[in-house]
Amino acid sequence: MSEIQRVLLLPHIKVHNANALSSPFTIGFPAMTAWLGAVHALQRKLNAKGYDAVKFISVGVVSHQCDLQTHKGVGDYVHSIIGTGNPLDKTGSRSAFIEEARCHLDVSLIIEYTGTAKENEDAVKDKITQLLNSSMKMAGGDILTFNLPDFFKIEAGNTKDIHKLIRKVMPGYALIERRDLMIEAMEQGQDAIDAVLDNLAIHHTATTDENTKGESTVTWSSKRKTKGWIVPIATGFHGLTELGQAKNQRDPNTLHRFAESVVTLGEFKMPHRIKSLNEILWSYHADIPNNLYLCTQNCVTKTTNLSPITNQLSTLFD
To answer: Which domains does the chain have, with CATH numbers?
Structure first.
């Protein structure tokens, strides 16, 4: 019997002022940890409302629009962050503040789930709609509007089932992981930051051609090392200290540790190019021996032994 995946679609969620500072040195589309964290929070709220069996297993993120709040004036070399208008202090001056990178988003979330029977789907839809309207944030931003949730059943190998879902999220770009580009570059001797920059850099070249009259023309061309819309993405955290108690920690019952972001390469890919739903789904993976807490693709987790990959990543922080 073919494997059947049950999917919840949260279409066209418009998010205002989402956190665009996805890691200490990247700005743009929010980190994958933000999206999986939001879906996990939604599951916990559903469980608290009496839907104890509902479990969200993995998440796919499709971006329809990302409006990064930056500005580049005439003659400027770099973009500047557009700040918020904070209230004046008692002296009439602007209070000191830390610049925060923000973006406005239109995204769809594809959530693989278990624990909901067919007859309960309408009730779950109503509860999700209520939660999204009342007490939820996405990637640190406010939810303005969204289309009604919908349920799908995807049978492995059934292209009609996949196409029925994909039509709901087009046009858009699904974010997938391209860790393979990082590993390939590092195996050739590059360090982590060089591997990222080498795949993101745009190389401009000029060629000179002469015609029969001896006149020369210069033609410029631009390209990247790898085809596709390659971007840096934050996909998890690397623990820096041992697990333990921290002073004034928010949760007194959970061990804490200092950590830093894990950044790798990703690709925005149009959903109509996927053959299997697992190509765009992400889930949590904890590699405790290497102190790595990652969001990984389902297709990587199910088909690849992660130990060599995580060992490569752990060397970035030695």
So the answer is: 4-71+98-177 (3.30.70), 179-264+287-317 (no CATH)
